Structures are given as C-alpha cells and as structure tokens.
Automatic annotation (TrEMBL), chain A:
SUPFAM superfamilies: F-box domain (SSF81383). Residues 20-66 form the F-box domain. The lineage of its organism: Eukaryota, Viridiplantae, Streptophyta, Embryophyta, Tracheophyta. This is F-box protein PP2-A15. Residues 1-20 are annotated as: Disordered.
TrEMBL record, chain B:
Part of a SCF (SKP1-cullin-F-box) protein ligase complex. Belongs to the SKP1 family. Residues 11-70 form the SKP1 component POZ domain. Keywords: Ubl conjugation pathway. The lineage of its organism: Eukaryota, Viridiplantae, Streptophyta, Embryophyta, Tracheophyta. It comes from Cinnamomum micranthum f. kanehirae. It comes from the Eukaryota. GO terms for biological process: jasmonic acid mediated signaling pathway; protein ubiquitination; ubiquitin-dependent protein catabolic process. This is SKP1-like protein. Pathway: Protein modification; protein ubiquitination. Residues 110-157 form the SKP1 component dimerisation domain.
C-alpha cells in the first residue's frame, strides 16, 4: 500500500485538467446518494446538469426520503384522481402547495379557513388556521371577545 | 503493511483488481465492504477475491480512505484532514472522484459512501448548474428543448 491519497491526486490531476473527463460519468445511483444531503429546491436545480443528475432527481427513493412520514394523511385530503398516478416527486410537488381542508361546509361557501402543506426546503408539515376556524370557549361573549378587521384579514 | 487494527484480527485477505493487480488487505479493512463480506461468507475466503469493476489506482484510493476513516473515529483533526483531501480530489480531479464514488458504491462501503456523497453535496450547494459544469467538467448532454422542459417541470420548487 505504498501510494498515498495525495500523490494519486497529483497523478490524476494531470488528466483532470484540460479537457479530460470530469464528474459527468458519475452513476445515477451515486447521484441519488448525494441528493440525500440536499434540499428539494437544490435537487430540482441540479436536475439540469446532465442525464444522470436528471434521472436521480426523479428517483422515487430520493423523494421518499424528502416526504414527511405522514404524507399519506395529507394526500387523503385531496380527491384521489389528483394523486393516484403521481411519482414520489409529483406527490412532493403537489403537497408543497397549500391544501385547503375543512369539514366541507365552509369550503363549499368558498371560505378557506385551514390549509396544510409541506415546506419545500425542510420537508416539515405546515398548517395555517384562520382565527375564525378555531373553537374558543366564550368566543360569542361580546364582553370578552370582538372581531377586529385588519389589513391582513382574508374576509 | 502498517497495522492500525487490533491485534486479534490480523488476518490478511487477498483481492485482485480488474487490471490484474493483487492486493493484500487486513481483514478488518476489507470487511468494511459489504460486497467482500458477502463474497467471503459465500465461499471464496481462502481464494483471491476478484473485483472486476475496480481498477488498481481506484482500489488504492478506496483502501486509503477506509484506513483513514477507521482512524478518524473520535478524532476531529483526522476527520477534517480526510474531508479536505476529499474536497481537494473533487476539485483537482473530478473524474477520479466519480470513479471513487462508483467503486465505493460497487464495493458497498456504507461509511465511505455517506462521506463522499456528503462532500460532493456540500460542494454543489448554492452553485448554478453552469458553474458546476465548468468546475467539475460535466458535459451538458441535453438539447435546448430538453433543458427548457426540465426547467418547466421543476418550476414549482422555486416559486
């Protein structure tokens, strides 16, 4: 075992400089391992590098690791035809947009009071609940509670 | 061969690279590879183990990394040293780096796969595809139409 890493690097450097081959022939399975350490926006950016990177950027194994463990619960909030034939990447893209959810009645009236989505960078599940959707004891008692319109109010 | 392993496991394993070079490696180092482990469990423990997908220079690199990785446990300085050597290799000779990753993947050495993947991931972070292609000598093998399609399909991630 006479060779050390450094003198091999120098030797290899000679064919690495100039127009020699680079990282382009890296196998797709290796790129998939690299993607385990990157966020979804970074992966989507790198899909443009070459075919191996594009292939890995569509791999179900990669996106399985980015989806939150309870992603099926989020899918259940959507009509099945919107996600039945999607890849794992397609599912992530779908869940990264806010999904309104409710008991149905308020949604039918066009009021979006609660939304859930997956954060594109951290893969965390996020939820937004409007104050009107909360059940608060004594909320009807005008002595203690009143609704104040602000610029950010949705209705 | 310098001995860094514990004295109880000094058994030597003989391996042959694709270009015919024969290597004698301590069992403790060789067993980092799940592929070699499986082959030994099967039957060829007493024979020379062939590695048809790994050339001698790349196998040297793998062994070197395996040894350093064994040394670096609980040693922050060694860890840093190995990391900077890995980054240096990636920058000076991305082709060999790619071959190293391919060999590590083939030999199924989990610890090294995680390390080399993480070094590359850290290098790629925050860089544009154009800059990465230039630094790592990656040929753009897409037609302009394909590139436009990839951009369109991934737009959701950047909105």
């Amino acid at each position: 075992m006479g060779a050390t890493l450094s003198n091999l690097t120098e030797g290899g450097g000679a064919n690495g400089t100039g127009n020699g081959p680079g990282l382009g022939d890296i196998p797709e399975s290796c790129v998939a391992c690299v993607f385990m350490y990157l966020t979804p926006p970074e992966i989507c950016n790198l899909a443009r590098l070459n075919r191996a990177f594009r292939g890995a950027a569509s791999s179900n194994a990669v996106w399985d690791s980015k989806l939150p463990s309870n992603y099926q619960d989020l899918l259940d909030l959507l009509p099945p035809d919107r996600h039945l034939n999607l890849s794992k990447k397609g599912i992530f893209a779908l869940l990264s947009r806010p999904i309104p959810f409710d008991d149905g009645t308020k949604l039918a009236l066009g009021l979006i009071l609660q939304e859930v989505w997956v954060d594109r960078v951290t893969s965390g599940v996020c939820m937004s609940i409007s104050a009107k959707a909360m059940l608060i004891t004594g909320i009807e008692d005008r002595r203690y509670w009143s609704w104040i319109q602000t610029e950010e109010s949705s209705q | 061969m310098a001995s860094t392993s514990n004295s109880t496991s000094s058994k030597i394993i003989t391996l042959r690279s694709s270009d015919g070079e024969v290597f004698e490696v301590e069992e403790s180092v060789a067993l980092e590879s799940n592929l070699i482990r499986r082959m030994m469990e099967d039957d060829c423990a007493n024979n020379i183990i062939p590695l048809p997908n790994v050339t001698a220079p790349i196998f040297y690199l793998v062994i070197e990394h395996c040894k350093k990785h064994a040394e670096m446990k609980d040693n922050k300085e060694k860890k840093k040293e190995l990391r900077s050597q890995g980054e240096e290799l990636l920058k000076s000779d991305p082709h060999t780096y790619s071959n190293l990753m391919e060999a590590v993947n083939y030999l199924d050495i989990k610890s090294l796969m995680d390390l080399t993947a993480q070094w590359l991931a850290d290098f790629l972070k925050g860089k544009s595809p154009r800059l990465i292609r230039e630094l790592l000598k990656i040929k753009n093998d897409f037609t302009p139409e394909e590139e436009a399609e990839i951009l369109e399909r991934n737009r959701w991630a950047f909105d």
